[in-house]
Amino acid sequence: MLHNSNGWDETTMTLLLFEDELWKNLSPLVYTRPIFDLRCGAFTLRERAVALLATRNVLMVGDERRRRVLESHVASMDVLGICRHHLMPCYGLNGDLSGVLGASTPLVLVNGRALDLNWLPNLLESPIGTVYESHGVLLGARLSPSLASAIMYYLMHQAAADALDELKRFGQVVSINTTMLEYPWELISRAGDQLVHDWPLLSVRLPRYVNQDPHIVVHQAHHVHVADSAQLDGPLVLDARDGPIFIDEDAHIEPFSFIQGPAYIGSKALVSSARIRPETSIGPVCRVGGEIEASTMQGYSNKHHDGFLGHSWLGEWVNVGAMTTNSDLKNTYGTVRVPIDGLGQLNSGVLKLGCFLADHVKLGIGLHLNGGSMIGIGSNIFGVHMVPKAVPPFTWGGDVFREYRLENMIDVARRVMKRRKHVLSDEYEQMLRSVFAMTRASRGYLNGETYLPQTNVTPTEQLALSHAETEAVRAFELAR
Question: Is the pLDDT of residue 448 over 70?
Fold first, then answer.
């Protein structure tokens, strides 16, 4: 090992992802996951950092002896995360911070809102005490354990601005111009560029596709990368003329599918005679059909049937029923407004924008969603023609909405996850319970027997309607 005069090892490091104050701008998508675990392009930031380190050339600096030593230790570099308290047991450090801060290795900090990591190799080669900022925001830093300890309280409370102020007293600050997430629609609008940026990281492990099947039509074959274990069943078309196509391990592309790049199909995903338009990323173990355009699915979610999904973002464990469709363009060709918890409806400035479905959302058959719709975690919506544009977390119903009973929601989540050979852990269940409690105020109009107001209905008619619908809801629950 190579040690400095302070006694800690400079050849190994811990890379620590953190959230800053603007995590709130991506509510409610980040209630159940840190901002650095949101997929944009082929990867989440955590996955992108791991892929970058796996290239084994990030730390190739200095003389030949040092280069060999650093190369041998690159695999030991941990990628860890610190996030909001209720998320730490599921997504944060394994163990407490004292183990990380007490180790004899430097820490490399990376802001969880970062997208492109082109700047990270330079930071890894920089002297201890180097601090990167981007437009006044703490982007990253390479610190000794003692200096990292001085700002860890701030980072544990998502107070990165205070951490940056402290670091300016001791570190060498370097200004970097890079892209950082700020609002939910950027997960969609930046996904296409991000897929292209991810090309070098994906091409390291996904070989170029060599087409030997006459039933598979390939355009720009040198831009198509397919894992050896992936299964492609013709007839199908892979069109990479506008961008690369990546098909990951054990993915299955069924006959009569059409995929246009840039696009990413994740490991063990199933594409069932689907039309995959450009700028689409399908995460692991998803099942997709129908038409999907410029959309991202985090993973373990289903849109298996016909219907259109455009310029949208879906979390994990989401199910979209047959023929459910979203709009991604206003008739006025105006920009789309998006409801964000705590901020109200913001103008995205984006012309084409679809819906956002947080983790564990279930949508029934034949629903319609307006552009900019935001459906909160754990909501189960069915039996309504047009879904409201803003649905609070843990909402249940259709023409009648009420708070989803938490025990029922968790029971459904447990069964759904079991179907994909996942166990709903005690830590994950506690996290869901914490989010339920945190978001209860947003469902104030749904408590008890209070329902969304009906237009053109007298109070007497409303009471009778509510009673009838309540009985129908109870009957449905008993029959499940």
Answer: no
Contacts of 416 (CB under 8 A, 6+ apart): 317, 319, 360
Question: If DSSP codes are grouped into helix, strand and coil, which group holds residue 443?
Answer: helix
* Domains of the chain in sequence order: 14-182 (3.90.550), 191-403 (2.160.10.10)
Question: Cβ(335)–Cβ(352) under 8 Å?
Answer: no
Are 20 and 160 in contact, with CB atoms under 8 Å apart? yes
Region of 250 (left: φ > 0; alpha: ψ -120 to 50; beta: rest) is: left
Q: Which residues contact 206 (CB under 8 A, 6 or more apart)?
A: 225, 226, 227, 246, 247, 248
Angle between helices 145-156 and 160-170 (to 10 degrees): 160
Q: Determine the length of the chain.
A: 480
Q: DSSP label at 63?
A: S
DSSP collapsed to 3 states, 403-429: ECCHHHHHHHHHHHHHHCCCCCCHHHH
Q: What is this structure's pTM?
A: 0.87
Strand segments, DSSP code E, in 272-386 are 275-276, 280-282, 287-288, 291-293, 296-299, 302-303, 308-310, 313-316, 319-320, 325-326, 337-340, 344-347, 356-357, 362-363, 368-369, 374-375, 380-381
388 in Cβ contact with 369 (< 8 Å): no
Q: Report whether 204 contacts 223 (CB < 8 A).
A: no
Please give the single-letter amino acid code of residue 352. Answer: K
> For residues 386 and 355, what is the distance between their CA atoms, to the nearest angstrom?
13
Q: Which amino acid is at 430?
A: Q
Question: In degrees rounded to 5, what are phi and psi of residue 175?
Answer: -85, 130
pLDDT tops 70 at residue 457? no
Q: What is the pLDDT of residues 75-116, one digit of tens each?
A: 446 789 999 999 999 998 866 677 777 776 889 999 999 998
